[in-house]
Specification:
heterodimer; A: six-stranded mixed beta sheet; five-stranded antiparallel beta sheet; globular; B: about 0% helix
């Protein structure tokens, strides 16, 4: 069964304190792995797509990496505005229509 | 401004009511989705439409009825809902054969 597990469930950081969020996945053939950011009461905002092991993507203070079993979202010198829930999702290569399988998310809180 | 617009943003309905959620995308995409997000649970795919045809229905109860009249519009018709159907309902779209999905802001549904 295709599955996505994110850890930790919640993470509290001080401003400037770098850390990483983990996304472990089990899927029968990976088409893509996606990271989203979700603010309270809003829809998920697309951040990155990763397609193959070894691939890396960066955007401002965020860097996403991918291996054959997991992905990491590294946050360098975070700011309070980075506080949000970060969602990881995978798409299997057998899927038609773009179905995404989501993890439960990591709630990040960055204190000034 | 998001490319995917959902209305209404908030909805309170009784168990005997009939209501509809609306989604419109301005991104030129050919696939549209309904997801359900309940507290502390991963996003769950409900329906997928690709080129206006339903591709996948994830065993959703018949009290939820989707409609996709064209590639830009998606509806979710609701009738005789239960309190446990209270959740954030998210619409998303993507290009068929492409993988990034872009989400709307969601409709917060409360069933009383």
């Amino acid at each position: 069964e295709d599955q996505v597990t994110q850890s930790p469930e919640a993470l509290r950081l001080q401003e400037g304190e770098s850390s990483s969020l983990n996304c472990s996945y089990t899927v029968s053939g990976l088409r893509g792995l996606f990271w989203y950011r979700q603010d309270p009461g809003k829809g998920p905002e697309f951040l990155f797509t990763l397609y193959s092991a070894g691939e890396e993507k960066e955007k401002e203070r965020l860097k996403a990496t991918l291996t054959k079993k997991e992905s990491f979202l590294h946050i360098t010198a975070p700011k309070p505005e980075d506080s949000a829930t970060y969602l990881c999702a995978v798409q299997a290569d057998y899927n038609q229509g773009g179905k995404l399988i989501f993890g439960q998310g990591t709630e990040l809180s960055v204190k000034p | 401004e998001t490319g995917v617009t959902q209305t209404p943003r908030h909805l309170v309905m009784g168990m005997t009511n009939k209501k509809s959620l609306k989604c419109e995308q301005h991104l030129g995409h050919n696939a549209m989705y309904w997801y359900k997000q309940s507290a502390k649970k991963p996003l769950e795919l409900m329906f997928v439409y690709s080129l206006e045809e339903r591709v996948e229905n994830n065993s959703v109860p018949s009290r939820f009825s989707p409609e996709c009249p064209n590639s830009s519009h998606l509806f979710l018709h609701l009738h005789t809902l239960q309190p446990e159907d209270s959740a954030l309902y998210l619409c998303a779209s993507s290009r068929t054969g492409d993988t990034e999905a872009f989400f709307g802001q969601g409709t917060r549904l409360t069933v009383v």
